[in-house]
What we know:
Four copies of one chain form a homotetramer.
Chain A: E1 2-10, H1 17-27, E2 31-38, E3 47-55, H2 58-69, E4 74-75, E5 82-85, E6 103-108, E7 111-116, E8 123-127, E9 132-136, E10 146-149, E11 154-157, H3 168-172, H4 183-198, E12 202-207, H5 210-213, H6 217-225, E13 231-235, H7 236-248, E14 250-251, E15 254-255, H8 267-279, H9 282-287, H10 295-301, E16 305-309, H11 325-335, E17 339-345, H12 348-355, E18 363-368, H13 371-378, E19 385-389, H14 392-404, H15 407-418
Parallel strand pairs in A: 7-9, 12-13, 12-17, 13-16, 17-18, 18-19
Antiparallel strand pairs in A: 1-3, 1-4, 2-3, 5-10, 6-7, 6-11, 8-9, 14-15
Helix pairs in contact in A: 4-14, 4-15, 6-14, 7-8
Amino acid sequence: MFSEQIELHGHIIDSLILPKVLDEILSHGGEFRILEIRIGQQRTDPSYARVEVSGPSPVVVDDLVRRLRLHGAEVMREVEVQLALAPADGVFPDNFYVTTNQQTFVRIEDQWIEARPAIMDSGIAVDSKSRTATALKFDEVRKGMQMVVGHHGIRVVPHQRAISKPGVFEFMASSVSSEKPKSAVIREIAAEFRQAKRAGGKILVVGGPAIVHTGAGEHLEKLMEWGFVDLLFAGNALAAHDIEHALFGTSLGVDLLEGALAHEGHENHMRAINAIRGAGGIAAAVAKGILRRGVMYRCVRQKIEFLLAGSIRDDGPLPEVIPDALSAQRLMRSKIGGVTLALMMGTMLHSIAAGNMLPASVKTICVDINPSVVTKLADRGTFQAIGLVTDLEPFLRELTDFLAGPVKEVEAHATAAALPA
Amino acid sequence: MFSEQIELHGHIIDSLILPKVLDEILSHGGEFRILEIRIGQQRTDPSYARVEVSGPSPVVVDDLVRRLRLHGAEVMREVEVQLALAPADGVFPDNFYVTTNQQTFVRIEDQWIEARPAIMDSGIAVDSKSRTATALKFDEVRKGMQMVVGHHGIRVVPHQRAISKPGVFEFMASSVSSEKPKSAVIREIAAEFRQAKRAGGKILVVGGPAIVHTGAGEHLEKLMEWGFVDLLFAGNALAAHDIEHALFGTSLGVDLLEGALAHEGHENHMRAINAIRGAGGIAAAVAKGILRRGVMYRCVRQKIEFLLAGSIRDDGPLPEVIPDALSAQRLMRSKIGGVTLALMMGTMLHSIAAGNMLPASVKTICVDINPSVVTKLADRGTFQAIGLVTDLEPFLRELTDFLAGPVKEVEAHATAAALPA
Amino acid sequence: MFSEQIELHGHIIDSLILPKVLDEILSHGGEFRILEIRIGQQRTDPSYARVEVSGPSPVVVDDLVRRLRLHGAEVMREVEVQLALAPADGVFPDNFYVTTNQQTFVRIEDQWIEARPAIMDSGIAVDSKSRTATALKFDEVRKGMQMVVGHHGIRVVPHQRAISKPGVFEFMASSVSSEKPKSAVIREIAAEFRQAKRAGGKILVVGGPAIVHTGAGEHLEKLMEWGFVDLLFAGNALAAHDIEHALFGTSLGVDLLEGALAHEGHENHMRAINAIRGAGGIAAAVAKGILRRGVMYRCVRQKIEFLLAGSIRDDGPLPEVIPDALSAQRLMRSKIGGVTLALMMGTMLHSIAAGNMLPASVKTICVDINPSVVTKLADRGTFQAIGLVTDLEPFLRELTDFLAGPVKEVEAHATAAALPA
Amino acid sequence: MFSEQIELHGHIIDSLILPKVLDEILSHGGEFRILEIRIGQQRTDPSYARVEVSGPSPVVVDDLVRRLRLHGAEVMREVEVQLALAPADGVFPDNFYVTTNQQTFVRIEDQWIEARPAIMDSGIAVDSKSRTATALKFDEVRKGMQMVVGHHGIRVVPHQRAISKPGVFEFMASSVSSEKPKSAVIREIAAEFRQAKRAGGKILVVGGPAIVHTGAGEHLEKLMEWGFVDLLFAGNALAAHDIEHALFGTSLGVDLLEGALAHEGHENHMRAINAIRGAGGIAAAVAKGILRRGVMYRCVRQKIEFLLAGSIRDDGPLPEVIPDALSAQRLMRSKIGGVTLALMMGTMLHSIAAGNMLPASVKTICVDINPSVVTKLADRGTFQAIGLVTDLEPFLRELTDFLAGPVKEVEAHATAAALPA
C-alpha cells in the first residue's frame, strides 16, 4: 500500500467537507485512517482533521490527492508547484493543471500565490519574477510560458457554508421545481438585487429572445432604469426581437398586444435588422431617432454596457454583434470583473458561456420555463445558484413589483434572513 | 371495385371538410370521383359535394364510410340504423357503434333522432316506442337493450367553422407554446368567462394540488366569490392541500409565505386530513368553525357544487371523497349538463376524466407548466380547446386582474372579437 | 435557552448523518455544542457523537428533536412512548406520530419494539399486551386503539451507507439525466434482477399503458416468462391497451407494426374491453381461448399475481379492475410484503401509489421519458431509487438482452461491483 | 371595397390549398367570391379556381395578396417584379421581398425566372442582363445591386401533396409524440436513407455532443462506414467529446462503459482538446496516429466533409473549428447543395442553423429526447420534417440494425409505401 497524509481545516464537518473527502477516498479505490481530529465545540469554531490516504498504487493515491484538493485538502509536506513550458502558442504542456472556478493558490518559493482570475477550465501560467499566477484560456497561451502541471503545490479554497443563517442561495441550491410557490423566492431575489447594489457589486443580466416573446421586455427596461443592470450579455436574437418589437410592435411577426391571435412571419424581423444595418448600428439608430424604445434603446440611453455575441443561427446580424466566438469570449471575460450577481433568463447558450467565466463566488439565478435548461445550468459547478422553472414575463413582473415596493420591508426581510434567529 | 356514394353539406370547403374526406379516402386504400360539386359564391352560402368512394373490397369501402361519417358524410340512400340486443348487463353487442363527443343522430323509422348526451366512447341504446336514443357507458347497459351496431343510419354533425371572425378558441386550437405572450390570450379568456355567465352557461373548474402549491388558491377563491365557478371537480389532493394551508399555512409542509425556504414534510398534511375526518367532513368542519378559509371553505360557504374523486395515491381520504371510480364517474356525468366553459389546471387525471364526458361544443382551457400535459389534453378530440403552458399562480392572478378590471373594456374587446372586421 | 442531549451512533460521518444533523439544528433556529465525539479510525469502525441541542423555547427544541429523529438521533434519557386513544373509527388522536418508510422502533416498558410494516404516512397502534406496534392507515383505525403521539420514545433507523464499494443504487440516487449513457446502468439493473431472484426476493413491476404504446409489451412478456416478475400493479389502461393489441394488433387504434402511419381511434379499444366483459374477465377470456397473447395473457398463464386499480379516467373497466381506491390500496399493501426490487415504468399515478407503500429498503427503478415524472418519483423519500429518463421500448429491450446474455458475465460484474476494489 | 382577382392551379383541394386561402382571406379582414371553379374528377386531375379578394382598403388587399402568394396564388394580371437599388453594402432596400424556403420565381421582361437557391430569410438580387435571380443574405449584398421589393411579379410554388400514397414524411409531419411506437418509423427512415443514396442525393448529418454522451458514436460511425453520411455539421463540442472518448474512454469525464458510475470531470475534456491543438488539428492527429478511432477519425479516414462551427460556449476550440459565425454560415451554404435528406440529432443551435439554409424540398428528420426541441425544429416551415422524441443511442442502434439487415425487405417495404394500394 502507498499512502500520503492530508490535512483539512475550517468548518469541515458542518460544510460536509470531511464526509465528502472520506466518500471520495472509498469511491475511488482508496482507504483512509483518521489520524487526528479536532472538532469545534461551538458552531463558530473551526475544525481540523489529519487523514492518511492509502491505495494499491502510487497512481491511485495521486489521483485521490488530486480529487481531494478540490475539497480543500492539503498534502502535509508542502512542496513547490511543478512547472513546464508551453510547447507552442495556444497549447498547454502535457499534464497541465485544469482550474476550477474556485479560489486557487499555487506554492512558489515557499509562498502561496493566488491564481487570478478564478475561472474554470483554464491552465495557470506562473511568472516567477513578479510572483504572479494567471489563469489562461487556450488562445492566451504563448510558447515558452511557465505553466503549472501535476497536482502538487496547489491549494483550492472550497466555498464554505455560511456560519450565520443561510440565505436563499444556500437553501435553494439545485432545488429546481415547477411546483413550488415562487413569490417568496422572488422576494428574496429582490432583496439580493438591492444588497448587491448597496455593496457596490455589478449585476450581469444574460438574456434570450424569450424575454421579448413573452412580453417581459418592459420589465427588464424597468430594471435598467432603476440601475439594477450593469452589464447585458445576449445574442443577435434578443436585440433583433427587441428592435422588431420597438419598430413594428411584433416579435417574429407575433403582435405582442394581440398575442397569439396575430399572424406569424419573419418579415418584420428581417426589416428590423435591415433598418438598423442601414442606420449603421443600434447606437446610431438611437442617435438618429429611428429606435425610440425597448431594451436596446434603454441600454444605449443609460450607457449600460451590452455585448452581443454571434452564433451560426443568426439572421443579419446587427452591426454591434461580434461574430467571432473567440473575440466575443475575450470581451466577455474582460467585462465580467466585479460582477457579484448574475441573472440568466431564457438562453442556454449564452448562460453556459457566461457561467463558464464566472468565479464560484458569484450568485447566479437561472430562470427558464424548461426544467432541463434550469437543471443543466444549476449543475455546472456553481456553488451559489438558484434555478426557477417559470415563465419569464410573470417572473420579471413580480421581481420589478417587489423592487418598486417600499424599500424598508424588503430590506428588513433581507436583514432578517441574514441574521441568526 | 366496390363503391358507395356519399354526400357532404355545409361549409365543407372553408371548414376543410371536403379535403379531409378526400385525404381519408386516399390514405386508406380507396379512390374517389367527384360526381357533383356546388360551391357557395359567398362565404355565407353552404356548399355541396357528391363523391363516389370505391375500393378493392366491401370491407375497405365499409371502413371508409365509417371514417367519413366522422366528418359528417352521409351515405346517399338513407337506411335505418341497425340494432342488436345487449347480450348481458354491462356488455354491448358485437360491432356496437362507438360514439364521438359530437352531436349524433340515428335514423329510426324514417326520422333522425338525436342521441343524448353527446359523450364519447359510449354505445347508443334506442327505445323505439319513445323514439329516444341514449348514449350509455358500459355499466349502464342492461341485458336486452336495443343497441346501435354497424355504421348505417347514423349521422354525425361535425363542428363547423364559425362564419364570423373566429374567436380565441378557433385560433388557438392545438397551439401549445411556452414562448408566446400570454396576456392577450388571458384577456380573451376573461372575456369568455363573462360571456359564459351572461349567456347563462355553467363554468366547470377542474383542478390539481398545484393550485395550492404555487400559491394560486387565493385567486381561485376570488373567481368563486365573483360567481365564475359553478362546479369544481378535483381529487383528495387539492382539498387536502388547501385545508392544510388553511389550518397550518403550509402545503405538503412548505410554508407558502416563506416559500421554498421552509422545511418539507408530510406531517401537517396528515394532521389536516385527520382534523377533517375528526370533524366529520369538510362541510361539518366549516359549520363547526374549524375550517375558516381556503378554496374548500369558499365552496361550502357559497354553495358551489364540488366533487372529489378518489384515487389509489390518496392519503386519508377526506370524508367527502368518493373512493369508487364508477360512482364518481356517474356523479360527474350527472352534474356536467349545462357546462359551456371548462378550465382545467394542474391535473392530468381529473382533466382527462372530465374531458371524456364533455360534448365537443364545450370550450375548454387547459393550463399546466408541463407542455406534454397540455399537448395531451388539447389533443383529445376537443374541437374548442386552448392550451397554455405556464405557471398556475401568475395565470390565475392575471385572469382575476382582468375580471376585476372595468367590465366595459373587456366586453368591448369581446364584442369586437366576435364581429367581422 | 432550553436544551436536550442527543446521541448518534454508527457511520455517522461517512454517511453524512452528523453534518446533516448539525445543519438541521442551525437551519431551524437552534444551536449545538458537541459534547463528545469518537470517530472510527478505520472505515469499518462505527463512530459516536453526543450533542447538546439548544433553542430559544421548548417548542423549538421539541421541533428540532423531531427532525433529528429522522436522522436516527436518540434523546439521551430514554422515555416511554406516549399513547392516546383513537377518538373514533378512522380518526387518529391529536398530535399522532406520522411514520416515515424507515425502520422504526417505539419504547414500551423499557423495550424497543419494531413498528411494522415500515410504511410512510401512517400512525402507530400499540398493543401493550402482545407488545406489538403496527403502522395503520386512516381506514384501519378503530375507536379506542392506543396510538403513538408526540416524539418521545421513538427511534428511526436511517438507511446507512454500505461499507463495501457501493452499488448502482447508492451512486445513481437522484441522478436523473437524459444525457448519460444508459447501457452500463441497464447492465447493472440486470445484475440486480438476477441478485434479487437469487436472494429469494419478490420483484414488483408497476406499469402504464405506454409500455404497450411504445411496443415494449413483448419485452415485458419475456421478463415474465423468465421468472423476473412476481407481481404486477397497473390500471385498467395497461390491461385494456395490451388486450386491444392482442386482439386487433393496435393500441388506441395505432397499429404497432405500421406505427404512426395507421389511423388513430378508440373503436378497437372499446371493442377489446367489451370482448373481455362479455367473456367474464381476463382469466375467463384466456380460459375460453379468446385472449391468446400479450402481457395479461402471460400473467394468467404463468400465475403471476396482478392487481388492476381503477381510476376515474377508465373506460369500461375490465372486470378484474378494482374501482374502489380504498379496497385497491388495502390489497396492494397486502401483496407488497417480500418485495425487494420494484421497477416502475410509464405511470405516475400507480408508481406514487406503490412508492407510498414500500419500505425504504426496497430498491426502486423509475423509467419514464418525461424527466419531471422521474424527478418526482425519485424524490419521494426513497433512499435507494434510480431514475432513468428514456424510452420504455429500448430500455426493456436492452434489459432483456442483458438478462438473456451469458449469466456468468453479468454475475461476475455484479460481484465485482459488490466487492471493494 | 377594393379587390383583386387571384388564380389557383394544381391539386388545390386535396392539398388543402383552396381552403387555406379562403381561411387567410377571412382571418385578415377580407371577403371572397369564388368566380370560377373546376375540380378534377379523378385524383390525378389538377383543379383550378379563380377568386375575387376584396377588403376595406388597398392596404388590406395588398397584405392579403402577399399572404396568398405563400400558398401559390397568382394575381391575374401578371406584372413585372419591382426592383430597387441596395443603398449600401450589407443593406437591403426598404420593403425588400423576404424569401421563404420554397421554389420562387420572379417576373422579368415577361418571363418567370427562378430565384436560386431556395433559402429562407433572404433578399432576391436580379441581374437583368444574364436574366438571373439570386437569393442573398445580408452580408452578400453590395451597394447598387438590383433587389426585388414589394409583392408583385413573384410566384411561390408551394409544396404539393404527393398524388400517390404518401410516405412517412407526409404522414408524420408535425407529429411529435414520445408515446408512439418508433420501430415502424425508424424502418421507414432506413428506407429513406437507401432511397436517397440510390437517387444520388447527399445526406447531411447535424449532430450535438449527446451523440457521444449517450454512447451512440459507434452507430454513427457505422452509418459513415456504409456511405450513408456525405456531410457532417457540428460544433466544437461533438468533436471534442468524441476525441475525449477516443483518447480516454470518457465523455466529460464520464466513462462510457462504466456509465454514470464513473466520476465526472472536465480534465480529460481539456486534455483531449490540448492534444489535438498540439498535433495541429484533427486531420494531423489522425495522420500522426494520435487519433485512432471515433466519429472524427472516421470522417478523416473516409474523407467525409465535416464543418465545425464555433460558439461562445466552446472550450479550446479544436483547430478545425471556425470561430467566425459569418464565415461558418457561408461555408455551410456552399456545401449544402445536393443535400436531399438531413438527420438532425441532439443540437438545437446547429439544427436551426442548418434548417435555415435548406430548401423546403429536403426531407428532414429531427431526433431529440426533449420534446420542445423537436417541436421547435419541426415547426420551422419545413414541409417534410419528421420529429422523433427519443434517446439518440437506441434510435441510431435501431437505424443501423435496419440498414444492416437484408436490403430486399427494406426496399420492398419502401416500394410498397410508394405505390398506391
